[in-house]
Amino acid sequence: MSDATRDFLDMLAAERGASTNTLAAYARDLDGAEELLGDLAKASRASVAKLAGAWSDLAPSTIARKTSALRQFFGFALEEGWREDDPSGALPAPRARRPLPKVLSHEAVDALFARAELEAGSGRPAAVRQLALLELLYGSGLRATELVSLPLSAVPRDAPLLTVMGKGGQARMVPVSERAKEAITVWLEIRPGDSKSRFLFPSRGGKHLSRIRLFQLLKELAARADLDPTGISPHVLRHAFATHLLEGGADLRILQTLLGHADIATTQIYTHVDAARLVELVNSRHPLARRDAKD
Fold it and tell me: Is 167 a catalytic residue?
């Protein structure tokens, strides 16, 4: 890795609060480009144009990600005075369509909760923890990383809100339902007392439950609830939270705040409302619809 690339990654971490996963992804993409072009701070526009051929077998989404990393690097190099030109125009620019997340029906959510509540009734710590995790995923729309890394200090006492540290180190407040508070209370009563972890959901060694383990727990629960495990994940439950709120009439801007999206466009893509409801909304709320009703 060149010194210029290291400086760019340092900037992302210091100024933009990029996460470890984001920095690792940028490092991989820039390293790969350097293997093809050499020092990126000195790469010519003609050599940059050759990346289109080198990346021709890659998926459009992968090319879009690599292009974004290089575009930001070249912009940084220009600002730092390492280059006098910006060769970003020579980069391939595929239009990668972002797929909508899978939609989870109300019936599937009910089945998942019914099974989780049945198992939590046994009082087993793992089952009680499982219900608390599920309540926060679907009830508050948390990301998997946000959920597993929740510190004990984030648990609300009197206020019905949870302090969450989201992407880029941005904190936000999300509501906690009465159901979720009850599940958390029961979990805290039997949470391992000898754990020195500062996290709400600790693992052995004082760290927190891993994202991978959270995925596994949800898929195992789905199988026991007679649901297809491939259709259940933390992301799917977060999407169900947003979708079902939108179906209930929630404002898109409120959803943006709850989900922690910096751009409203992300929320528009992330949420999904069926066509039937949109038609019903237009027919019942449009001014001309009300005018026809009067006539």
Answer: yes
User: Is 270 tagged catalytic?
Assistant: yes
- Catalytic residue flag (residue 261): yes
Active site residue 143: yes
The pTM assigned to this predicted structure is 0.61
Q: Is 115 a catalytic residue?
A: no
- pLDDT value for 141: 84
Give the active site residue among 50, 65, 102, 167. 167
Q: Which of 66, 138, 244, 270 is catalytic?
A: 270
Q: Per-residue confidence at 121, pLDDT binned at 50, 70, 90?
A: very high
Query: Which one from 71, 219, 235, 272 is the annotated catalytic residue?
Result: 235
Instruction: Considering the candidates 143, 191, 208, 239, report the single residue annotated as catalytic.
Output: 143
- Quick check: is 235 catalytic? yes
Q: Which one of 9-18, 74-83, 162-171 scores highest in mean pLDDT?
A: 74-83
Provide DSSP, the chain.
--HHHHHHHHHHHHHS---HHHHHHHHHHHHHHHHHHS-TTT--HHHHHTHHHHTTTS-HHHHHHHHHHHHHHHHHHHHHTS-SS-GGGGS----PPPPPPPPPPHHHHHHHHHHHHHHHTT--HHHHHHHHHHHHHHHH---HHHHHT-BGGGS-SSSSEEEEE-GGG-EEEEE--HHHHHHHHHHHHHS-TT----BSSB-TTS-BPPHHHHHHHHHHHHHHTTS-GGG--HHHHHHHHHHHHHHTT--HHHHHHHHT-SSHHHHHHH----HHHHHHHHHHHSHHHHHHHH-
Residue 93 is predicted with a pLDDT of 74
